[in-house]
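Let us practice reading a record.
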Amino acid sequence: IKKVIKHEKEEINKINKIKNKIKNENIEITSQKIELASLKNKLRIEKNKMNKKVSEKNRIIKKLKNKKAYYNREIKKLKSEKLKIENRIKEIIKARTKVKENISLKNLKNKMGNMIYPIDGKLILGFNEPKKIGNYGGTIKSNGIEIKGRLGSRVKATLDGKVVYVDKMDELNNVIIIDHGYGVVTVYGNLISSYVKKDQMISKGEKIGVLGLTNNTQEAVLYFELRLNTEPINPFNLIR
């Protein structure tokens, strides 16, 4: 009997050990399940964050592409408008000026003397300098110079001459073109109004118009060109 009782106790102990082991294993499994669920939740949160970042990145890329496409269209449009203005100025010069004597660039100053500055202000774009368009590296080379002044400032004739054009011209708003003889012509753009009429003779320093705003930047900037035999040249060949 003692042996039987001892044996049963041993069996009971074994069973209890097995039960405890199973219990501990269940606790471990439950703990692992909780940890796994927590990890899955963290991964889900991180994935959502990553998806949001990717979506935001794609949105920004799309926006930048759209902006770039827009600026490319604007650059193309401005280049086309510049060409139209260039052709129009040449047409006006050829139709309304008479060159009695051709003059070389070398002898220009001796024949014409010094030009005065057309307006008080700050030079913001030099002759033949690239003008930046938008934020993507697009540029257009300038045929003239740009001088930032005050809205309403009076614009002066840089030399004696004859007015051959007073009218609007695409992106340059009101424009005045003056023939100074010898194939020398000056162009004044971005005017809000003018004091002169076509075929009027004017003197160096005479007020010819009022400075207005540009179409694109809405700033008071005078556009000024000097041309010799219809071709644009650097105004600082004569301005001193």
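A brief commentary: The domain at 1-240 is CATH 2.70.70.10 (Glucose Permease (Domain IIA)).
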